[in-house]
Amino acid sequence: MKKAALAVAALAACTSSAWAQSSVTLYGIVDAAARYTTNVNPGVAPKQLIPGGMSQSRLGVNVIEDMGGGLKALANMEHRLNSDTGAVSSATDFWRQAWVGLQSNELGQIRLGRQYNILFDLYTSSFASFRYSPYIEAYKPEIGMSAGARQDNMVKYLGQVGNVYGEIQVAAGEGNSQNKSVGGLLRYNDGNWGMGGAYLQVTDT
After folding, report:
1. Low-confidence ranges of the chain (pLDDT < 50)
2. How far apart are CA 119 and CA 70, in angstroms?
């Protein structure tokens, strides 16, 4: 009886793992531009090869693990690089995003780690100034208006009911008086038109 029970348990484990589906996606943008600019600051060459003509270059890994029962485990890591030299754009800020999360078909999604804040999510999804990429190098007011674009140590909840989508974020700063944030957003989009609003309070350096 013990051997039969073990065999059935092993078969059940194999069956459940066969139902689960996993995906690992490598994504990114590599962008460079040759630029000639007159009347620039003294000492700046008018001819330049710049790391990003239309968009910042970045490379990321996105992981989705189907856990069954309508649950999925999520993970994302993304960093920015200079396409002209291959170097990272900021040695102190290698990972532009680094978070893990859990998604439920019924309850929404929760993410933990360094990630884009709610203002950035709202601007780039609803009010992007340039549809090619909201990260455009030459003109990107969304970055300036998004209170730093990212926060560390963040817990973010994302949920959607019909055409209404919402997010809530909290970052406690891990005992530090800096890098704290709290806020939320609400957005409506029916495929033809959309509108949204957000509030974010940030304490940083």
Report:
1. 1-19
2. 29
180-189 sheet: strands from edge to edge: 22-29, 57-68, 71-81, 95-104, 108-116, 150-161, 164-171, 180-189, 194-203
User: Distance (Å, rounded) from C-alpha 131 to C-alpha 155?
Assistant: 28
- CA distance linking residue 107 with residue 166, whole number of Å: 12
> 12 forms bridges with which residues in the sheet?
none
How many residues can be counted in the chain?
205
Which pLDDT value is given to residue 129? 65
The rounded distance, in Å, linking the Cα atoms of 146 and 97 is 16
d(CA 201, CA 28): 30
- For position 133, what pLDDT does the model report? 58
Of 73, 64, 63, 62, nearest in space to 104 by CA = 73
Separation CA 64–CA 21 (nearest Å): 8
pLDDT tens for residues 155-186? 999 999 999 999 999 998 776 667 789 999 99
Q: CA 14 to CA 86: how far, in whole Å? A: 43
